[in-house]
Amino acid sequence: MDGYLITVLSNIGMISFVALSAYILLLSGQISFGQQAYFGIGAYTAGIATVMWQWPLAGALVLGALVASAAAGLVGLATLRLSGIYFAMATLAFAEIMRIAAELLVYRREIGGIETGPDGIDGFRDIRYFFANDVSPLQTCLIVYVLLGMVVAALFMAERTRAGRMLRQVGEDPLLAEVHGIDVMRVRMAAALVAGAVAGLGGGLYAHLMTYVEPKSFDIMLGVHALAYGLIGGLGTALGPLLGVLIDIGLLESTRIFRGYRMIVFGGLVAVLLIVRPRGLLDENAVGRIRHYLRRRGHAGD
Amino acid sequence: MLEIDDLTVRFDGIEALRRLTLVVPPGARIGVIGPNGSGKTTLFNAISGLVAIAGGTIRLNGRAISHLAPHQIAASGVARTFQSVRLFQRLSVVDNVLPAVGTTRDARQAALAALDAVGLAARRDTLAGDLSFYDQRRLEIARAIAQRPRLLLADEPTAGLSQSECDHVIELIGNAFGAETAILLIEHKIAAVEALCPRSMLLSEGRLIVDAATSDMRRDPRLANVYFGTQLPL
Amino acid sequence: MTAVDLAQNTLDGLMVGASYALLAVGFTLIFGVMRRLNLAYGPTIMAGVYLGTAAFISLGAPTLVVLVVVIIGAALVGLYVERLCFRPFGEGARAASMVASFALWMQLEEAATHLLPQHMNPFPPLLATQPLEIGPLLLRADHLVMLAATLLIAGAVTYLLARTKLGLAIRAVIDQPRAAAIVGIHVERVMMLTFVLASAIGGVAGFLIAATDGQVTHMIGMWATTKGLVAMMLGGLGSVKGAIAGGLLLGILEAHAQWFLGPQVRDMVAWGLLFVLLAFWPGGLMGAKALDRTMAVGRRV
User: Fold this and answer.
1) Nearest CA in chain B to C295
2) Is residue B230 pLDDT above 70, yes or no?
3) Burial tier of C125 (Cβ tally within 10 Å: 0-12, 13-18, 19+)
4) What residues of C are in contact with residue A175 (Cβ under 8 Å)?
């Protein structure tokens, strides 16, 4: 495979994590403008772990996901009872605080004779784990997709459990869910924790694939894009956000068809698409019909 | 089983319920009637924990529930339906019924049984929002059945239905719940109340003014007075 | 640190806050009638300002003409945003509306960079006079104009809302769109007019900001969206007065934070204040019970 294609595929995979993160919260009925914060926290944490503390990659990625999840839990305590624009703005406020904190974060140490570590607004360079361990771009791409596949599979399975249904019930009508015996706050908290971990994991991969991160990569643009992917691709299944990422990065950005006019075309297309399908291409109706079709064809699938 | 003592609910200075006292024994079926604004739905909202109460207590099986969260009240055995049908519109029929209580396999069985009881089992994979209004009403009842409540709060379950649909829904509610399940039924159609509830109570301006056998209620002059008259005979 | 510094900071903050206040007024109007977030508000303003800049650069248009171009440009682009992102959606599709407005944000920004590819472009200054000296304090004349314009517009909007037929219709739609329709108000038209009005106000804000800076960069779209949003939320999301107060508060806060803590921490302080307000005192609304706000709706079931 040629290098450019691998890079594009890797990018699609990494951004999918933050799109899935926003999607999980969308299912719980909350619009977050701040999932980029957990992506960033995961990126910085995992990067620091491999570079400064010489951790192995797996441990660093897990740590990044855990720290991001914990941060999401703390933010959740303060914000989950908010709804609508209040929640959206509170999450954005947190993400901006984190981004600026990263601009102020200087943590430099000499590792192997070279000074390294996060350097404020200049970001965190030389996260060279893959390079140092002779992992080829193709292999890193595979790592991204194996992990993404695991997350998507877990979400697929969760959709079929009580927890997954409760999540959608809460998102549909929190009051009805509550009267129905569901602890809405607990479900939302669980969603926030999982969403934080998924974003954090993606962030850890991002840091190692890009080999450098900087605070401005985690600004509101990333957060709103993440939200948009779910709504473009569809909220009926975890494949929806992935489809959204694929359309934007895979089809438009990378093929360079509309070079220089990409957003003019894409922006208009998205607006028109949402008019026709306000819950995305793979919305609940479409997913229901696909499942029905698959069942009739005798394939497995529910 | 349900004991309400001296319950008062206020909205912005208006007393929606005034010092209401009521005892509902297990298995009782009680009609709740009264003109719009008399406090019927507020009573249901207070029991299910959706509005804050200003005074008094609500007990379920001896336990005070007035300060529990709505989901805790639901878990202790209170189910309800809404006057304007309230469903998870974008979830399938069966997902609407799968209760939050119970384990997965049992819950699925119970859900399917409940759908069967209301005649919607064949449509289990349809999205709730795609059902006809009548089917949506029945789905709401199936949801309540699956919850196996000790107390059902049915808020005008026949509103918007034709006469025959209305009869069927009342029959459903009468048969689908166990003898131990108490039912409070808000209704404007006295015939529906008569068919289901031996006892009924009349609310007016937030007060409970008559609590009597339904057969006597129809003849009670206060009923006509509350609905049509100008003065309250109190 | 002296009393003079404090006073000067407060004064500077007040002036910058005036522009925030205007942005917040526009946001509040749109959010009031639509109950949805218009992320393309800043880029709408950017489009107007860029059209004005282009007229200035290529045709040498005088300041007043530039002002008119900016206002009309912003109003027309606002109309376009309303048509594509808000009118086709019901209130039920809040997220779709918002994401559509984000898509147009991207679109407008790219279109603007095609119009003026340079990062920084000259903009006709408002008043190129020396700053006024009031005792030890310095006061820029153009800042004074900005503050005056803000108060004037705020007054006009308040008058419009309180005293005119359109204002009554707007208030009715804000309160209860369905009831407004039943009493014969053309809700869609009221929404459209409010949207265009808010965009025009945004145009004035954009003009004043660019004119006092004497230049405009492609950051102005994002800047206007975020500052306007923060000011609106600080003001409590609901009244013109609140929006003005929120804008001025944000301006003053930022001026002091910048002076004492530097520009990065300045932004952090503003976001931090917003976060704390939302988390612990959301709009001064009820906050005791978890689902209070949802339940307020539940009362009407």
Assistant:
1) B50
2) no
3) middle
4) 291, 294-295, 297-298
In this prediction, residues B193-199 reach a mean pLDDT of: 91
Q: Which structure tokens are listed for A84?
A: 């609508």
Q: Is residue A254 part of a domain?
A: yes
CB contact under 8 A, A181 and B127: no
B91 at interface of A, judged by CB pairs closer than 8 A = yes
β partners of residue A114:
A111
pLDDT for A147 beyond 50: yes
Tokens (6 digits) for A91: 């999450």
Q: Does A21 have pLDDT greater than 70?
A: yes
Please report whether residue A16 resides in a domain: yes
State the CATH number of the domain containing residue B43.
3.40.50.300
| Tally of domains within chain C | 1
My answer on whether B155 and B219 are in the same domain is yes
As a residue count, chain C comes to 301
Burial of C13 (0-12, 13-18, 19+ CB in 10 A): buried
- Are B157 and B41 in the same domain? yes
For chain C, state the CA radius of gyration: 20
CA atoms in the 13 A half-sphere facing the CB of B55: 10
User: Mutual orientation of helices A3-27 and A184-210 as an angle, nearest 10°?
Assistant: 170
CA-wise closest residue to C38 among C161, C175, C199: C199
> Which chain B residues have a beta carbon less than 8 Å from that of C290?
69
CB proximity C110 to A under 8 Å = yes
- CATH number of the domain at A45, please: 1.10.3470
Neighbour subunits, B (≥3 Cβ pairs < 8 A): A, C
In the predicted structure, residue A1 carries a pLDDT above the cut 80: no
Shortest distance between the Cα of A188 and any Cα of chain B, in A, equals 14
Query: Residue C166 is part of which domain span?
Result: 7-126+135-230
B139 within a domain of the structure (yes/no): yes
Q: How many domains does chain B have?
A: 2
Site of tokens 């929606």: B16
Cα distance from A142 to chain C (closest Cα, Å)?
31
Contact residues on chain A for C291, CB-CB shorter than 8 A: 81, 174-175, 178, 184
Kindly state whether residues B155 and B53 are assigned to the same domain: yes
Question: Which subunits count as partners of chain A given 3+ CB pairs below 8 Å?
Answer: B, C
Q: Which residue segment(s) compose the domain that A178 sits in?
A: 3-296
Q: Is the residue at C248 inside a domain?
A: no
Tell me if C84 sits within 8 A of C99, measured CB to CB. no
| ipTM confidence | 0.90
Size of interface B-C (CB pairs under 8 A): 21
Question: Residue B56 belongs to what domain range?
Answer: 1-77+151-171+182-234
Mutation target among A23, A92, A229, A258 for the C interface, most CBs of C within 10 A: A92
Shared-domain flag, residues B54 and B167: yes
pLDDT one-digit tens code per residue, B18-40 = 999 999 999 999 999 988 888 89
State which residue of chain C sits closest to A264, comparing Cα positions: C107
Hey, what are C116's tokens?
């003026």
Whether B195 and B159 map to the same domain: the answer is yes
Provide the domain count of chain A: 1
Query: Per DSSP, what are the bridge partners of residue B79?
Result: B152
In angstroms, the CA A229 to CA A15 distance is 10
Whether residues B57 and B103 share a domain: the answer is: no
State how far the alpha carbon of A47 is from the alpha carbons of A101, A117, A126, B214, in Å: 16, 9, 9, 74
- Asked if B107 and B15 sit in the same domain, the reply is no
Closest Cα in chain C to B68: C289
